[in-house]
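Let's practice the habit of predicting before peeking. Look at the sequence and jot down your guess about where helices and strands might fall. Then scroll down.
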Amino acid sequence: MTDGAAFFSGHNLRVGFYDLLFGRASNLIGEAEFYRDFTAGTGSVLEAACGSGRLFPALGAPGRLLVGFDASVELLQQAQTHYGGNTDLGRPLLCAQRMENFAFGCRFERIIVGYYGLSYVLDPDGRRSFLQRIADHLTPDGQAVLHLPDADLLRRPVPQSEIDAQRGSLVLKSEAQGFSGRLAYHTTENRVVENGAVHITALTFALLDESGAILREESAAMQYAILDRQDIETLATAAGLTLTGCRSGFTEDNESELIVTLALA
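Done guessing? Here is the structure:
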């Protein structure tokens, strides 16, 4: 079984510009407000697969314990640079750990697994271990949120015309000091493998100068485990958790997501 977290490792365009490429999607509208409400009034928050700390402004508060971990050292370095000394966020504590075997010496009132974090754990045993560790790290009245992509959308055949349309170009300003150019991206393939258990999106990225000349070009495959509500309920039950809420998006008009809330059974 390959490692879904590999997409986020290394010094490359997709990691260096992750927030710019992926953090502004329309399906994330309302995300920050949702997490602020979810963590309001709590004293401790753990974010699994925190990446660059993109959600920290919504999760942190003065005096609150905010801990984040990720398997990507490169993304953690970004998080440390952006948020490490921010007292308004409670000075986030960061460390490199994997979701399948993370461990801390305390429990948390809220645990966040944002933006498809669980979907990158491709191994079923790894997912079971991760849900058990969530249960082990929740306070008795604590809650956890898992944000995943809708399983039916991942399973459906994607027409070639739709794949061809998944492209764009981003002007680089503050993201690349002293550089004037663009970051281009496009999807080259969408397919389902592993007997319907894993969705693969193949992507290419290119850094272009002002004249349009390609300075660097890369390809990578983003892999998601395909998990529906029943899959999450089965994992939760085995870990001693119960599903307390489920929604299809952060806003009422979005039905592309699976957002579930868990608590100790």
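How did you do? The mean pLDDT is 95.
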